[in-house]
Structures are given as structure tokens and as C-alpha cells.
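$ fold --in a.seq
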Amino acid sequence: MDKIQKLAIGSIFVGTVVFVLKYAAYYITGSIALYSDALESIINVVTAVAAFLAVRLSAAPADANHPYGHHKVEYFSAVLEGVLIIVAALAILREAYFGLLSPKVIDAPMHGLAVNAIAGAINAAWSWALMRHGRRLRSPALVADGRHLLTDVVTSAVVIAGLLLVPLTGWTWLDSALAAMVAVNILWSGWSLMKESIGGLMDEALPEATLVRVREIISANAEGALEAHDLRTRHAGRMTFIDFHLVVPGAMSVTEAHDICDRLERALKADVKDALITIHVEPDNKAKHSGIVVL
């Protein structure tokens, strides 16, 4: 079991602990805002399970039916998270609506808020760990899980701050209003997550800064070739796919052209982790004079 899978299992455990704490806070107080926070934690557990299954499947080696591997499955996990986040937000809005119609006094608010604050601190630490390791290991599922938890941390902080005002002001409607604010924030988070994951499924190119670096590496390490053109890139989970055409003198031997390709692959893989590179060698009459000029 690799580190990504271990982190995914850790998310299931942390999510369960946080849910128990947040539901306890809701049980103590009867607060709709804390109920909304607890409901989001249920989604955290479900999405953590989905993330674990995704990273486990994405680690499977390429096979006859999936010659490019299973890396994109992590994007499906992130899309599922986005859908579940939106469903949770709609459920919270429903409770907030009925709470505004019939506001009630919150019981033992300080005890409940203290329990909820402990859960929020656990979430904050774990979300930071997930995003840090997810970016380093290039796991969309872990980064998505971390960002989701970070949204939960922010909304929990807002809820706690707002509910502290209820006993001071007597504004019982503030509980439901805070729940509605949490729901709107969760909706935005879910939409952003789905949009980013769909971009991965649609084979978006590498960021422009990375593309510039790739062009520089090709230009600096293709000595003996004439130019490179038709550069294409895409992400698929942890993998980065790079392919381009390399123009060489027509009289160059296959061995010499192959040596240039090997040198380019080594240079690109040293800079772009988990890169799969395909180079199509062409004779000089195929030059377009509009690609990457070899230094």
C-alpha cells in the first residue's frame, strides 16, 4: 500500500472522528447551524471512502483494456465529491428555511461550540496535510479531499463565531441564517471542485508556465535535431503526457535519432515527474519552421 492510499485511509478515520464530535455538538445544542456542520461531515466520510477507492484503483498498472493506466479514475472521485457537496448544501438550505420559520433558543451553546471547535481544529490539521501531500504526490483525489475539508474548517469557524452572538443578542434567527450561509458556501465549493475535475477529464493542457519550461528543455537538449513541433500535453491524475514531433536531418541514422530522443526523455522526466513521453521523428523535409527551435 503506497503513501497516497494510506493518506486516503487516514481521511476515513479522521472524517469519522470529526463527524462524531460535530454530531455531539448538535445533539447538545439543537442548533441548525451545527446540524449543517455535522451533515457536511457525513459527506466528508463518504467522499473519503470514494477517494480511497479511487487512489487504490488508479495505482493499478496498465492492462490490455487500459493501456494508458487507470489514472483518470481520481477525477471521477473528485466529481462525485462535488455532487455530494451540492446535495448536502441543498439539505442544509431546507433545514435553514424551516428554522427561519420557527426559530428556537439554543441549549448549552458554549459546551456545544467547544466540542465543535475541537472537531474544526482536527479538520484544519488534516486538510493541510492532505493538500500538502496531495500536491507533492500529484493526487487529484487527495487534493480535492483536502480542499473540501478546508471549506468545512472555514464554515465551522463562521458558525462558531456567529453562534457566540446568539446568547449575547437574543437573535434566535441567526442560527438558521448561519446555516443558510454555510450551505451557499458549500454550493460554491462543490461547483468549483466539479469544474476543476471535469477539466482533468477533458484532457486540459499543462499550465502555461509548465509548457514554457517543457519547450525550454526540448530546445536545450535536442542537439543534432533541427526543430520540434506539434507539442501536445495533458494531465491524467498523477501522470503527465507529453508528445511532439522531432525533425532531424534526412541523412541521420536511426541510432543517432534514437539517442537524441533518449536524451530528451531523460531531461523532461528529470523536470516533470511521472511523465510519459512520445516523440515522433521526422526527416527535415517535414519541418514546419514554426515550432521549437533547437539551440
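$ fold --in b.seq
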Amino acid sequence: MNSTASTDELPSSTAPLAGVRVVEVSSFVAAPLCGMTLAHLGADVIRVDPIGGAADYHRWPLTEDDESIYWAGLNKGKRSFAANFRDPQAHKIIRDLIIDAGVLVTNAAGRDWLDYDELSAIRPDLIHVQVLGRADGTGAVDYTVNAATGFPQVTGPENLDSPVNHVLPAWDVSCGLYAALSVASAVYRREITGAGTKIVLPLEDVAFATAGNLGYLAEAQLGLPGRGRFGNAVYGTYGSDFTTSDGARIMIVALTPRHFRDLTELTGTTSAAAALEAALGVDFRDEGVRFEHREVLGGLFAKWFREHTVAEAEAALDGTSILHERYRTFAELASDPRVTNNPMFQKIDQPRIGTHLAPSTPMSFDGEHPPVRTAPANGDDTAGILTEHLGLTDDEIDALAAAGSVRTQQKDNA
């Protein structure tokens, strides 16, 4: 925390990072998600972009007016500073903002004015987070990283020959949260020791670490049989999807003996499952055994689902311990009470986008979620930031804008 933090910047339960200022020079998902997470937690996050916006400023999905819903979603609660990234004067200003803030988060590469050694020579306690594609500095994005992980080879229906990418940018999301955790950890360390930190976070290593932590790599290194594709089945336990009489699909997971017992009782297959155990000489209390015999068990349970509507099935399942959920579209989820009545989601009037429910953090603090703030437009806060943090006068700011070094909304609206 800055030693000059005012009383209204002091941490509260929903703003534990109040008083921390972060400069973010970023684009796409991981680094912006880091900055937004920190902003949700009370940090003052200044996103620095080229004049007109970075490569993600108009990324899909778009409104009918070609405004990026995606960009607004990942930049809530930040302030926007727009500068000419080709202008040495702008480089100096951005450097000064970073030195003043003391924390930089970036995924920009090859920019000397963002170099840790140069910046830390001026401010030794600088916290500098560099998100890379690969550890060697070469470029990579979520979808190319994913191709190297092995996950596309085990995703999708059985007997499919081609790889299947997941739609969710899982590595970007994980990387962004790791980056936010690294900032919070480094800020805590700086408070205790006064030391700065250089943090390097390769997107590829996030994916590889996850594959290792979940046992996929050790499984291969130990010479165990290669993992296959199992469709919607859950590897190593019992999980499957079933179709109801009205064509809906429900995912069922039975992790424990109790889950499995309730599933057989619900579907009226207790005796049949017991007979199957005896015939096969197995014990379905073992989740691995349930996985091995998932197809025949699925045949037992499928009849019950085919004879019930989704409403009937959900009502019956709700009275059991069985883990279940109906497959939904984004549109169905958006109108679901778990979103519309969820205190994590708060109504905002997002300029250029419209009024909608937007999420805060999934964590609540002392029973409250941090407030949701809107996202700025490119350059919305340039003038205010130059005045507040660098002490520039209106005339000095106007001169910078006139020279094309920065973009201010005052200049745009004149």
C-alpha cells in the first residue's frame, strides 16, 4: 500500500487492496483479468492503451453499434489512459506513471520502456508482473498452448480421430488469476520487507503446471495406459448425461457410494444393479469400478430418464444426494434465478453497451461482494490521471494532446 493512502483508501473487507495502485499495459484475457480482479478487490488500476485501443478493443462479441461487450466485461472498475505507443514522450509519461504506482502488470513484449531492470533502477521496490506466451519469450495464446497440453486429444466423443479444443480459454483465465495472486503476494511481501519483485508468468507454464497437478503428466511418465476419449463420462468415477422424454439433457455424477445408491433407488434399478455386481464379481461402491462399467450402468438408468420430462427428473433428483444439472444455453443461464437473484451479479449501466447484470468477484467478504463498477472507454481518464498522479497542468495536458502523445476525452469532445 502507498504510505500516502488517504483514509477513504484504507482497506475494508470488500476492498482489501485499497491504496494499492496498478498500471496495466495489456490486451486480450490473462493480463486484463488480472487487473480487473485487483480492481474488484479495491486496487486503483490504470489500464494504459494505445490511442484508439489495443488489439482487443473491438473484439467480439459486439453490440449493434460495434462496441465490444468482451472488452467492457474484462475492464470493469479500471481507469483508462490512452497514449501514443510510438512516441518517446508518451513512453516517459507511462514510465513515470509506473514509477509512481509501484506495480506494473503487462503482457506486452519487446518494449524497452516497460523493462524491469530500467524501471527498478528508478524504483527498487517495484512489483513487475510479465505475462509471457512461453518461458523463452516467444508468442503463444490460449488456443495454441492448449494444442500442446494433450487435453484436445482426450476431449470430445469416443472414437473421434481429430483433436477438439475447448471453447473456454481455461489457461488465460487461470493465468490471470495466478497473476492477481502474484501481485497480492508481492504487495504483502513489500509491506513486510520493503522489497520489490520481478514476476514472470508464462501462459504455457500455467497450462503445463495444471496438467501436472491433475496427474495427467505423471500418469504418462509412469508408463500407464494413455488416456482416451470418453465423451461426457467422468474419468475414474461414474458420470454420464441422459436424455429426458422432452428432449432435454441432464448431467449426472455419482462420486460416492451414497450418490450411487440414491441413483439406483431413484431409477428403480437397485435389484438390477445388485444382480449385475454379482454377475460381474465387482463392487459398485468403488468409483473406479463404476467407471469401468459405465456403459452397462448407463443402459440401466437411461430408461428412467426417457420416461420422465426434465421438470419431473429435476424435481425427483432434487430430493436425493445425486449431483445433477440440466444442460443450458447462455441465454437460459442469463435469465436463471441463480444469476438474476445472485448478489454477485449487480445491475450496471455500462456506457456504450447498455444496462445489464455484471458479476463482481465470486468471493464474498463478511457476507458482501465488492461493488461492480463500469468499464471506461479508451482515454476516458487520461487527463485526470496526469493531473492527479503526475501533477500536470491543464495547459501541459492540452499540449500533450495536441502533439498526439496522449488522448483525452476533453480533446475528443471539443
